[in-house]
Input
Amino acid sequence: MGCVTDFFTYETTKSVVVKSWTIGVINRAVQLLIITYFVCWVFLHEKAYQIRDSSIESSVMTKVKGIGRYSKQIMDVADYVIPPQGSSVFVILTKLITTPKQVLNHCPETDDKYKCSNDSYCTRNNPTSNGFLTGRCVRSYCQIQGWCPTENDTVRMPIVMEAENFTIFVKNSVRFPIFDFERGNLPGSLNCRYDPHKSPFCPIFRLGDIVRLAGQNFTNLAEKGGVLSIKIGWLCDLDQSWDLCVPRYSFTRLDGVSEKNNVSPGYNFRFARYYMNPDGSEFRTLIKAFGIRIDVLVYGNAGKFNIIPTLINTVAAFTSVGVGTVLCDIILLNFLKGADQYKAKKFEEISDASTSFGSHMFKSDQTLAGRGDEKRSTDSGAFSIGL
Amino acid sequence: MGCVTDFFTYETTKSVVVKSWTIGVINRAVQLLIITYFVCWVFLHEKAYQIRDSSIESSVMTKVKGIGRYSKQIMDVADYVIPPQGSSVFVILTKLITTPKQVLNHCPETDDKYKCSNDSYCTRNNPTSNGFLTGRCVRSYCQIQGWCPTENDTVRMPIVMEAENFTIFVKNSVRFPIFDFERGNLPGSLNCRYDPHKSPFCPIFRLGDIVRLAGQNFTNLAEKGGVLSIKIGWLCDLDQSWDLCVPRYSFTRLDGVSEKNNVSPGYNFRFARYYMNPDGSEFRTLIKAFGIRIDVLVYGNAGKFNIIPTLINTVAAFTSVGVGTVLCDIILLNFLKGADQYKAKKFEEISDASTSFGSHMFKSDQTLAGRGDEKRSTDSGAFSIGL
Amino acid sequence: MGCVTDFFTYETTKSVVVKSWTIGVINRAVQLLIITYFVCWVFLHEKAYQIRDSSIESSVMTKVKGIGRYSKQIMDVADYVIPPQGSSVFVILTKLITTPKQVLNHCPETDDKYKCSNDSYCTRNNPTSNGFLTGRCVRSYCQIQGWCPTENDTVRMPIVMEAENFTIFVKNSVRFPIFDFERGNLPGSLNCRYDPHKSPFCPIFRLGDIVRLAGQNFTNLAEKGGVLSIKIGWLCDLDQSWDLCVPRYSFTRLDGVSEKNNVSPGYNFRFARYYMNPDGSEFRTLIKAFGIRIDVLVYGNAGKFNIIPTLINTVAAFTSVGVGTVLCDIILLNFLKGADQYKAKKFEEISDASTSFGSHMFKSDQTLAGRGDEKRSTDSGAFSIGL
Output
């Protein structure tokens, strides 16, 4: 029985209440500060009362529209978008260096690195960027075996000027699995053109605008090639109304560094189209393509009220208010007028068990204890931190 | 010496033990609640004793199998899978609108937007979706310069019915770098077909099943095109046996919104195959392809026992039990019978240093202090929260 | 007025100071331990004084260089890299099984599964891997309708030996949006070759080296195909100098499991090149390609000093030092010589309000209280934990 009664007891700390304006004000000020921090930052700003879902599920479809002219030819989407399947990463070709009718054969190199006066300059089987040296020197250039004629990518070519007016339609739908919340980026009508101010939710972007909003110059970019990103941000507070969960579009140049860097500026790649002669021999058109690559990046998270984080953080807030005492104690016990006497009250000394009883007798007298504390505290300041 | 002895002292709070059933029971109840929370939620559910590795490294390879019939032609994998290289995102073509033998030339538009009665209707160089207006009106349609004949994508085409039986083999291996733990999704044998109940670990999926499990209708999806995801989840507790770390497959429609939305439903794209006449002139076959895009998404994390988080959380648990006092103090000092007398015990008053000594003399008498407390507490309830 | 003065009071816990070497040393030791943990782990190792940005924005461009020989043909980049557009995931073809001049027609299967002695063996319209059975048995094989001749992928083919010397140039630029910090991986000059020791920052990798550093054998890999990763890690401390934020390259085989697993080893896929006869009939070259897929994976985060986390963690550190008391109390009140007398000092009993006043009178005598505590504590050990 005794055991049970003993178990069901409540133990709370014995406190000293200091009626001092100075420390009182400091104390409350610190507490106010802590409460403000929790209310404003933790709860209002960080939304600590919500559970967040950052595992956003997203699907992106893109569709480019527009017609371009290039060297007397007409280019449509099927010609200038690579890859064609409307994925989230694609390239819009803006400049082409074409080498038609290449066949596997022997021909002289075009690169001046392979200028030669006789065969000895051309070590057989050495690889060049176009093929393998045959060991022969033809028309003062080493001969190679490979795709002939070799590409000459030093020619200056124009860019597809119309590309600036091409439009990119981005269809994006996102899902937050935890809340099973689904949302798309399509507005009621698609008769619009994205504009950061006038129509910030229109998912149809003019390439020229994207380039401008990314702080780039279209002609330079189209000339050298580069990588831009369309970022779609979904930051949704599901405690608020459904239609406040809207996408935020932003645009940056991703390969910004390569732009400044002269070692290897821009973005280009080579691909080929293969043909076959009636006789069954294969030939190809090699294309060195410069273009603007667009990466559509989707990020975001959603939050919704939940009781568990709310409780935990509320408790944390309450208990944290107590933290103020650490600071106040330091002030109270060291810098305040009459600190010694506060110590006398706060600290009740009790020395080692061996001599406990005796000391106990005396130390039970507060005033003495106080004196003892004074002395002590003067020797070791660390102690008065109250830890 | 004194300094040293003073340093090696131990300071603990002086406590008041309340032998009251009411508060005792409340106190223990609250403590029990907190302990339960830590044991059940933090430790058992959240596995706070483990370190987690969420930086999952994954590689996905896919292989589609199946033969389809389309407009008297036979389509195999090389024909209907784009891109071909077995990546984690690919499209299975289910409907094709083909425009063969396109050459760069002049021809009338097919779009009724460009109906005309005379040349004045057709402003020269205006871009259409197929080319640039030449300024001439031919057979009551504006003439364009571009790929001719222009595509007519209003024709109704069938779908590849066999696609429902195509199978998708997904090879996935994951790695958790922190634990250097590697795992694959291949079972002992591949003579199987995925079934959520009968064979949940078989990595060979029938397209029709995926569509069904994603809650879609195959014919609609194949008709309009859409995006499905095969999600592979790896949630591994490495404290348990190796073969309990298994993949969980789930299926959703990613562009679910576009489905409901009439503005731009489904998924389709255009690509072309280029050919060359013996005379060197190029022509192409333009294909508007509708298809089912499959995104294979891999997520997961692994946890393993580690001493640091275990210690931290154990300490947190222990100390948190003390939090209960905040609540109990409020009850004890305000709502409990004899609250005043509890205050008397708990709070020991000490007023401003200026008058300290005198006040000290009197306040040292508990009972008086008690009275002081009573009065005080009645004025400001906030105070009795014990903060 | 009284209310105000009462509000501006400061309340601190009344403490018992134990002057005992044993407990004193333990106390300080525990505190030292906690401080060390915070200083060394939380602050120095975990950099708790920084805010971290893990939402790294990255763009990757790749360019493969090298010339290969394959069955008397020369292959250049346009021939052996798929997809061509220099994305972060690409395949270098190392082995090809080519089936040229396929036309849609009727022909016998090559697979022994379809050996037959008469038509009854070949159920009409059954799909094979190459087409649909026509129901006829021709030359002791079931006849199919499909792309003819059917592929025979059992032939042994050589690999592109030169592939080992192909070089992969990786251009990567990253951005940490929160700090708006941008960085690229290009060194001053590109006349280099990556070497883990000699030139660890050179972004030009020899395929053979990557394979070796991933602990693989080139010939096996090229023969069967596989997936390697080039991981680029950016772990930047922005409090330090700009040029200490450098990429770390590492290499692993991603499909490591499939290697051990015999069910489906390696990596291969099929694609086709389409041609057209002058008469307008289409034919194709089917290619079963084995290759080494390279995934360039970028990860990383950046940290920078920020006052908020610094404050929070400093406070946490300070308060945590108090946690030591939990442990020390247990020792002090249970295992230490004179524990009872410590309890006497620490605990001041107060029984239920009903009998409060009386008990109050007596219990106010410390020694009695002590006795009461002794008795109590002996019954229930749990209690002496001081919670």
Q: What stands out?
A: Chain C has eleven helices and 18 strands. The two ends of chain C are 37 Å apart (CA to CA). Residues 353-387 of chain C have pLDDT under 50 and may be disordered.
